[in-house]
Amino acid sequence: MHQDEIKAIFDQQAASYDAQWAKTAPIKDCLYFLLGSLFAELPADARILCVGVGTGVELAYLAKNPTWEFTAVEPSGPMLDVCRQRAEKEGVASRCHFHEGYLDSLSASGSHDAATCFLVSQFILDQQRRSDFFREISRRLKPGGILASSDLASDVESAEYEVLLRAWVNMMAASDISPEAIDRMRKAYSNDVGVLPPGRVASIIEASGFEPPVQFFQAGLIHAWLSKRAPGNAA
From residue 227, how far is each of 103, 115, 172 by CA, in Å? Predict the structure, then answer.
């Protein structure tokens, strides 16, 4: 599936996206709870880059800190509109810069203290392009800046993957997602999503200008890592 096709899917889902995934909120709640602890030592005037921000749930969570500022990057205009509306409703829009487009169209100023990138890089099937994507994030971080990222990850040839996939599908079935959508999801994981072993995802991140990532979270197929921009990494 090409970039434009993925964008079109999210364009169509924007209005109902949060409701569709509401029953999986405990996973996000736990991830964001840990995220808050990982970002606790950021400076009071931190600038945070949210890559593939979607409807802005993680931005809203982090914006509870009243002095942090955010750059929200999202290629889907309808998804970014929902994010902007959320930020306006919660009174944090004045601390946000909304950028409709891909990361390569955002200035590589190296001015951010931290970044988030949740369930985004998995849609980049070519591993070199995936590495380039993480390098683009590192270029927009200050020296020593940190990245919290997550992706679906597993060794798809392993028995473990079969167990996790069955549990994942059962969870989706309980989340008001149609059987047709679940079938499409199974096929997408085989053809359109770069589900790689967790160690391989970590190595791609490390090769992109970061110190060895630390896995800080797993829920089913979702794995999340904390990575620090490596010293000497050129902006």
Answer: 18, 10, 29
